[in-house]
Amino acid sequence: MAEDVAALGQRVARRFIVRGARPKPTDLASEMGVELIHQEAPPPAQPRLRSEYRSAPARIILYCDSIAELGAAIHASQRFDMMRCDLLEVHTAHELFHHIEFGQRFGPLTPQEVETAAHAFTQELLGLHFGPTEFSELTGPEL
Hints:
The protein has 143 residues and is mainly α. The chain is built from seven helices and three strands.
């Protein structure tokens, strides 16, 4: 099912790509009425959390310290492909998929399938040449 779920994420992303122009996820969030919140640290129970979506009210929370740690890990590993991307936009895109999924309910998906679709959405929307799951290889899970 993972391939079908990844294709779902890609199809949803393509809805927003017009004539090859890829919109900034932060702009899409604004257009959709999703508030972006920047906080320094994640909750103590989830110290590696980099971002999350909350539906009521619709908001994306970006944990700047955790995202900065990822940035340092990317530089330390010399992942030049990852250095070119805006980590705030990557995390916003991932959480934006959760907002879209919350409003549309794409069917009975497991939490892991939803994450797979969100990663595929992010990769397609931003035109990344790597999978967002590769971030976890640098710092551990929690996107």
